[in-house]
Amino acid sequence: MFAKGYDPKRNMGGRPKKARNKTTVEIQNALTKILEGEVEYVGEVLSNLRLTDPKEYLKFTLKMSEFILPRRSTINANIEGEIGVKLNKIEVQILNNEIKNKDDESI
């Protein structure tokens, strides 16, 4: 009637996508509660660190910026096409919320 290894009580589909581990959720909740209690002191601690150890303050600030700022990545674009001209440099200036080329009017 059933195939070998089949157990009707077992979830044969596995864990649903993006399902979170119970332990991970508990740890995250605990850490959130700890950090919420420390929020009022963060500014004071950072100010003190900036005054006492500027190098460590800068290292900390740069490390934390990874969680706030998007990562920059390079984009390589080979723009050779029908005209057969390879562009080495494109300069763009943003003035008054309009994109302008160095030599042309606004685009």
Please name the defining characteristics of this protein.
107 residues, mainly alpha, two-stranded antiparallel ribbon, flat
Walkthrough of the structure:
0% of the residues are buried. A hairpin with a 2-residue loop joins strand 1 and strand 2. With 107 residues, the protein is mainly alpha-helical. It is built from two helices and two strands; from the N terminus they run H-H-E-E. The mean pLDDT is 76. The chain has a two-stranded antiparallel sheet with strand order 1-2. The chain has a domain at 22-76.
Number of helix segments?
Answer: 2
Q: Can you tell me the residue ranges where pLDDT is under 50 for at least 5 consecutive residues?
A: none
What is the element string, with H for helices and E for strands? HHEE
Radius of gyration of CA atoms, rounded to a whole number: 27 Å
Mean pLDDT: 76
Shape: flat
What fraction strand? 5-15%
> Order of strands in the sheet with the most strands?
1-2
Helix content: 40-55%
Give a quick account of the main beta sheet: strands, pairing sense, barrel closure.
2 strands, antiparallel
Cα(first) to Cα(last) distance is 71 Å
- Class of secondary structure makeup: mainly alpha
Number of strands: 2
